[in-house]
């Protein structure tokens, strides 16, 4: 599934209608596809009000109205602009609807519109589309506010009216939908922290755009189960431990052994062939029994924290640094050594991201891939910006940072954004609120470490790691856990279920 900006969607529509020749057929397809979904969500006795505006969404609304009217549903239309503001295509579909004995109330002609909205069991929002930029003006703003307050169940067509399709908007006036039926491909705002909730539950319908046209124009996609099944390497029956990666985890300090232990165990459970863990003597004494399959090495330390010293970096296929390592000055020197001496893909997470703040210039000096796995707060700190600005435009800032510093960025959140150094982006939608606990990110780092040592590209490995991490949490909740009791260690144990279900 691909994710599109407003411009990308306009280009896809234009090519489909004009160059390929769909013309009015595309709007007919859109309305019929949405109407089919609406039928699954309403009862025959429901009063359905379709609120239409002047643009293509309004045309979709008239097709929906006609389709439901012809199937004996109780349908009426509220048109919020005079006829002269309707496009030629919308006028065409309005006349078809009226010819099928449809009823239409004009906003300017009657004071009854508030009563009509209040009496509706279902309001289908076909008011505004993806072209909104800034605050909605009157009288549409009042209509939106009244629908939110007094309307019945709200189903939006493609996008909740008034909501921006793209990232970056700070102020907007939007329908708060219960459900949104997205046309062709989800828009960027589906995945933004400050706009996602306006969609309610959402699903995508196909209306005839060639899939190749969408894929050629969209710069981002959803890393879903189809992607996982397609790209996850299969294991050769004759393979041995050396074929599946020699991984190294450097981290932990005397008062934070747990996170380090979870990373090591998650890497093993995900499929790493050989794992070595370097930490302080006290940490290794505490955790070695938790993952007896790993090899352990005591690193040089002072006051319970690792310091720069000879590390077993040779012949490794992947290294993870920073999990529970602490933020001591001498630990920063350890990161400097790791950045300089590691000759394989390197993941920096946890305290490593804090220590990296003053060493960003070293990232460009590395010849091998570097992967950063920040949550929003950590990313905002790396960017030296307010988290509120980041959450409004996470795709943009993640892409700019990745391109500038030549790194992969896994920006963690409800929807995790994965970005490559050349600007390619994907979104992982798996996972649930049970992951909002300490340790979840440490488990993801272990999964990433194991994944990137398999025979797939780094970008593919990051997408698949995020899928496995979130899907493990989802399957654990489905099989008996709740959002409240789910632990990071439960996610590790659920990895096997993901492989059994999707491999």
From TrEMBL:
Cofactor note: Binds 1 potassium ion per subunit.
Segments forming domain YjeF N-terminal: 9-215
Binding residue positions for (6S)-NADPHX: 56-60, 129-135, 158, 324, 375, 442
Key words, A-Z: ATP-binding, Isomerase, Lyase, Metal-binding, Multifunctional enzyme, NAD, NADP, Nucleotide-binding, Potassium
Catalytic reactions on record: (6R)-NADHX = (6S)-NADHX; (6S)-NADPHX + ADP = AMP + phosphate + NADPH + H(+); (6S)-NADHX + ADP = AMP + phosphate + NADH + H(+); (6R)-NADPHX = (6S)-NADPHX
Cofactor: K(+); Mg(2+)
A Pfam cross-reference name: YjeF_N
CDD domains: YXKO-related
Binding site for AMP: 412-416, 441
Subunit structure comment from the entry: Homotetramer.
HAMAP family named in the record: NADHX_dehydratase, NADHX_epimerase
Similarity comment: In the N-terminal section; belongs to the NnrE/AIBP family.
Entry protein name: Bifunctional NAD(P)H-hydrate repair enzyme
Organism name: Tigheibacillus halophilus
The organism's taxonomic lineage, starting at the top: Bacteria, Bacillati, Bacillota, Bacilli, Bacillales
Name of encoding gene: nnrD
């Amino acid at each position: 599934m691909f994710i599109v900006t407003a411009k990308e969607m306009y280009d896809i529509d234009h090519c489909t209608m004009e160059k390929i020749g769909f013309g009015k057929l595309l709007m007919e397809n859109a309305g019929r596809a949405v109407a089919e979904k609406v039928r699954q969500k309403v009862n025959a006795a429901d009063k359905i009000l379709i609120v239409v505006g002047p643009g293509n969404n309004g045309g979709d609304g008239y097709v929906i109205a006609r389709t439901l009217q012809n199937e004996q549903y109780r349908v009426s239309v509220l048109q919020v602009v005079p006829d002269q503001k309707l496009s030629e295509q919308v006028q065409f579909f309005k006349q078809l609807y009226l010819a099928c004995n449809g009823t239409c109330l004009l906003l300017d002609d009657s004071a009854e519109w508030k009563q009509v909205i209040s009496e509706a069991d279902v309001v289908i929002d076909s008011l505004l589309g993806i072209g909104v930029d800034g605050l909605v003006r009157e009288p549409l703003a009042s209509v939106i506010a009244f629908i939110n307050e007094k309307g019945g169940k709200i189903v939006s067509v493609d996008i909740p009216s008034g909501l921006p399709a793209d990232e970056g908007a700070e102020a907007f006036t939007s329908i708060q939908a219960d459900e949104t039926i997205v046309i062709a491909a989800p828009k960027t705002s589906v995945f933004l922290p400050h706009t996602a909730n306006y969609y309610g539950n959402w699903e995508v319908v196909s209306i005839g755009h060639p899939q190749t046209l969408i894929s050629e124009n969209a710069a981002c996609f959803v890393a879903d189960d189809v992607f996982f099944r397609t790209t996850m390497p299969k294991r050769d029956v004759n393979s041995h431990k050396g074929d599946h990666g020699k991984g190294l985890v450097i981290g932990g300090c005397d008062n934070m052994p747990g996170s380090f232990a979870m990373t090591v165990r998650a890497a093993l459970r995900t499929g790493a062939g050989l794992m070595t863990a370097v930490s302080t003597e006290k940490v290794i004494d505490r955790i070695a029994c938790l993952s007896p399959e790993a090899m352990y090495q005591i690193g040089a330390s002072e006051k319970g924290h690792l310091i720069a010293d000879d590390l077993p970096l040779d012949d490794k296929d992947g290294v993870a640094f920073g999990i529970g390592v602490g933020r001591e000055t001498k630990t920063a020197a350890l990161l400097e050594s790791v950045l300089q001496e590691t000759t394989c893909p390197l993941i920096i997470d946890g305290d490593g991201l804090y220590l990296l703040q003053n060493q960003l210039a070293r990232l460009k000096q590395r010849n091998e891939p570097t992967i950063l796995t920040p949550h929003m707060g950590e990313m905002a700190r790396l960017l030296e910006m307010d988290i509120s600005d980041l959450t409004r435009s996470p795709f943009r800032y993640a892409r700019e940072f990745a391109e500038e510093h030549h790194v992969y960025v896994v920006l963690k959140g409800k929807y995790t954004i994965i970005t490559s150094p050349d600007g390619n982006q994907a979104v992982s939608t798996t996972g649930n609120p049970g992951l909002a606990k300490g340790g979840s990110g440490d488990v993801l780092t272990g999964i990433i470490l194991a994944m990137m040592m398999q025979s797939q590209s780094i970008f593919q490995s990051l997408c698949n790691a995020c899928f496995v991490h979130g899907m493990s949490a989802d399957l654990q909740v489905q099989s008996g856990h709740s959002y409240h009791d789910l632990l990071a260690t439960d996610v590790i144990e659920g990895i096997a279920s993901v492989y059994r279900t999707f491999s």
